[in-house]
Amino acid sequence: MTDTSVLFVCVNNAGKSVMAAGLMRQIASPHIRVTSAGTHAKGKVNQQSVQVLAEVDVDISDHQPTQLTDQMLDDADLVVLVGSQAQLENHPGTTIQRWDTDEPSLRGIDGIDRMRIIRDDITTRVQALAANLSTAAAPPAGQSTQSDRRDG
Predict the structure, then answer these.
(1) What is the C-alpha to C-alpha distance for residues 118 and 51, in angstroms, rounded to an integer?
(2) Which residues pair with 67 in a beta bridge?
(3) Torsion angle, CA of 96/77/19/134, rounded to 10 degrees?
(4) 98/51 Cα distance (integer angstroms)
C-alpha cells in the first residue's frame, strides 16, 4: 500500500498546523505520513496548544517550527491550510484544502478556552480527513494489503 502524505500549514507553525499534525498522528493509520510547516515559521510552539493537546493525550511539546519549502509542497499528496491567515501561491500538481477553523477570539473568547474550541474544531476535521484517506487507501474488499505470494 502506498503511503499518503499530508502537510498541515499555518503562518507560524506554532499553533493550528502543529495541533492538526499531532491529532492526525494520533488518529490516522500508519499509512498516512504527517508533517507541518509555516509560511513564516518562527518562535516556538504555542504553550496553550501544547496544554490543550496534552488534555487529549497528544504531546507536541518538542515541536520546532518549520519553514515551508517548495520541496515540502512537491512531496505532499495533500496540503491543508489550517485557518484563514496562511496564504500560498498556486502550486501546480499540489492538492490544497483550506480549513477555515473557528476563531473564538472574534466572539470575545480568549486564552485556554479559545484553544480548547480550536482544538475541538480541528479534531473534528482531522477525524473526517483521516476516515476519508483511510477509505481511499483501503484495498478493494477481499484483497490483502500484503502479497499472498510465498517464495520457495
Answers:
(1) 13
(2) 38
(3) 110
(4) 25
User: What does each C-alpha distance from 105 to 16, 18, 46, 63, 100 come to in angstroms?
Assistant: 14, 19, 16, 24, 14
Yes or no: say if 20 and 36 are a contact pair by the CB < 8 Å rule: yes
Joined grid coordinates for residue 51: 496544554
Residues counted in the chain: 152
C-alpha–C-alpha distance, residues 58 and 94, integer Å: 28
Q: Quick one: pLDDT at residue 138? A: 53
The rounded distance, in Å, linking the Cα atoms of 98 and 81 is 5
Q: Is 2 left (phi over 0), alpha (psi -120 to 50) or beta?
A: beta
* pLDDT of 89 over the 90 cut: no
pLDDT tops 50 at residue 146? no
Tell me if the pTM is above 0.85.
Answer: yes
pLDDT at 31 > cutoff 60: yes
SS (H, E, C) 46-105: CHHHHHHHHCCCCCCCCCCCCECCHHHHHHCCEEEEECCCCCCCCCCCCEEEEECCCCHH
What is the grid cell recorded at 10?
499555518
